[in-house]
Design a protein that fits this description.
By secondary structure, this protein is of the alpha/beta class. It has a domain of 165 residues: Rossmann fold. It is built from eight helices and seven strands. Helix 2 crosses helix 3. The longest helix is centred in the last third of the chain and has 17 residues. Catalyzes the conversion of S-adenosyl-L-methionine (SAM) to carboxy-S-adenosyl-L-methionine (Cx-SAM).
Length: 242
C-alpha cells in the first residue's frame, strides 16, 4: 500500500538533490497525483494511443517506468498478438515495486521489467515508446542521443509518447504557469515549506525544455510529425510519429 507523501514536510537542514530512492518509491503514487496536473488523464491516454499504434509482434517500451502506471495502462489496452512490453528504470526501489504491480494483474501481453540506465538499453522493432516525465532528468546531450536511438529502433509509423514539464520563453507566462502549478499543489495539501523544499531538491536534477525545443529536436531527428496532445499549466504530453 502506497503511503502519504510527507518527505519534505519537516525542515531539512542540508538539502540534497532529489533521488528516486525507497522513500520516494513508497509514496510515489500520492506524490505524482498531487504534484503533476492531469497525470491520470495522461496515463489513460497512453493506453489509448498504445492500442491504436501497437503492431503485431512488436516491442513496446516504457523508459523510466517508475511503478509501471503507463505499462499497466498499455497492457490493458493492447489488442494485437505477439506484443511484448519492456519496462525500464534505474531505481532498484522503483523496479522492485513495479514488478509487484505488474505481477498483480494477469494479461496475454508479457512484461519484462529491467533495472538499467535507459541510455544503455537497445531499442529494437518498436511500435510504441513511452518517455513519461523521464527525458527531463537527462542532460541535453543525452536527450538528443536517446531520442535518436528511439527513432532508429521504431518501425515506420511507430509512435513516441513524450510527457514533460515545460518552460516558456515569455517570462510573464512562464511565471504565471509556475504559480498556477504551485496553487495546484497547495490545493492538494502541500505546505509552502514542502513546495519550497521540493523545488530546491529537484531544480538541479530536472531541467525542462520548451515545447519549441522539443518540436525542433524531434523534427531534426527525422520524426514526420509531432504535436502536443495534452497540456495543463506547465505540464503536458506530446506524440511524435516516425
Amino acid at each position: 500500500m502506497a503511503g502519504h507523501d510527507n518527505i519534505f514536510a519537516a525542515p531539512i537542514e542540508k538539502m540534497g538533490d532529489f533521488t528516486f530512492d525507497a522513500r520516494v518509491a513508497e509514496v510515489f503514487p500520492d506524490m505524482i497525483q498531487r504534484s503533476v496536473p492531469g497525470y491520470s488523464n495522461i496515463i489513460s491516454a497512453i493506453g489509448m494511443l498504445a492500442e491504436r499504434f501497437a503492431k503485431p509482434h512488436s516491442n513496446i517500451y516504457d523508459l523510466g517506468c517508475s511503478l509501471g502506471a503507463a505499462t499497466l495502462s498499455m497492457r490493458r489496452h493492447i489488442q494485437q498478438e505477439g506484443c511484448a512490453i519492456i519496462a525500464v528504470d534505474n531505481s532498484s526501489a522503483m523496479v522492485e515495486r513495479c514488478r509487484l504491480h505488474i505481477d498483480a494483474y494477469r494479461s496475454d501481453t508479457p512484461v519484462t521489467v529491467i533495472e538499467a540506465d535507459i541510455r544503455e538499453i537497445e531499442i529494437t522493432d518498436a511500435s510504441v515508446v513511452v518517455l513519461n516525465f523521464t527525458l527531463q532528468f537527462l542532460s541535453p546531450h543525452d536527450r538528443q542521443q536517446l531520442l535518436e536511438k528511439i527513432y532508429a529502433g521504431l518501425r515506420p509509423g511507430g509512435i513516441l509518447i513524450l510527457s514533460e514539464k515545460y518552460i516558456f520563453e515569455d517570462d510573464s507566462s512562464n511565471e504565471l504557469l509556475i504559480d498556477l502549478h504551485h496553487d495546484f499543489k497547495r490545493a492538494n495539501g502541500y505546505s509552502e515549506l514542502e513546495i519550497s523544499q521540493k523545488r530546491s531538491a529537484i531544480e538541479n536534477v530536472m531541467r525542462p525544455d520548451s515545447i519549441d525545443t522539443h518540436r525542433e529536436r524531434l523534427a531534426n531527428i527525422g520524426f514526420s510529425s509531432s504535436e502536443v496532445w495534452f497540456q495543463c499549466f506547465n505540464f503536458g504530453s506530446m506524440f511524435a510519429i516516425k
